[in-house]
Amino acid sequence: MTRSPHNATPTVGPYRACPIKRRRSKADIGAIKASIVEVVEADPPMTVRQVFYQLVTRGVIEKTEKEYQQTVIRLMGQMRIAGELDWSSVVDESRQRRVTKTHDSISAAVEDCARFYRRSALKQAEEYVEIWCEKDALAGALWEVTSDYDVPLMISRGMPSLTFSTAPHWRSSALRHGARTPTSISSAIGTRLEC
Hints:
Layout: E1 2-3, E2 10-11, H1 26-42, H2 48-57, H3 65-81, H4 106-116, E3 131-133, H5 139-146, E4 153-155, H6 162-165, H7 168-174, H8 187-194
Parallel strand pairs: 3-4
Antiparallel strand pairs: 1-2
Helix pairs in contact: 2-3
């Protein structure tokens, strides 16, 4: 809408039609589903977000929130329900299930304790080590390695909060050994930790 210089009455520009929205054909959907299966089978388990980025990289879909929500999430859900995609091949590291560990008897508890007993490698180490990662989607894969070596894994999900970054495990351990903050943590947090 513009105003003419000679009067204050607004003038309306020409009408333009909205672009026609084309729905994907069954063949298009089938091709996307085949790509999803290919991506997941190449490196299971994967998060839905990882599959989305793989599909974008391969040029299967556009990098939009709409494609993520209405294509990838929707299709992967339908595929799992229909048995076209294994439930175990998709993980959701952002949600945790908290369950109290219980046993049917004292002997079962002792057996369980003996099976999972590990002496702390960190107690005898000269330096404290922990691994920081921004991507929650990588937590499962990294934990398989870090847990073998008794190394804590810190998943910050992008920019970590001050609460997470200044938790007692960080202040009392990493700074005691003169470690620097990870590069993903801003200098403001780093300054706070050095105080």
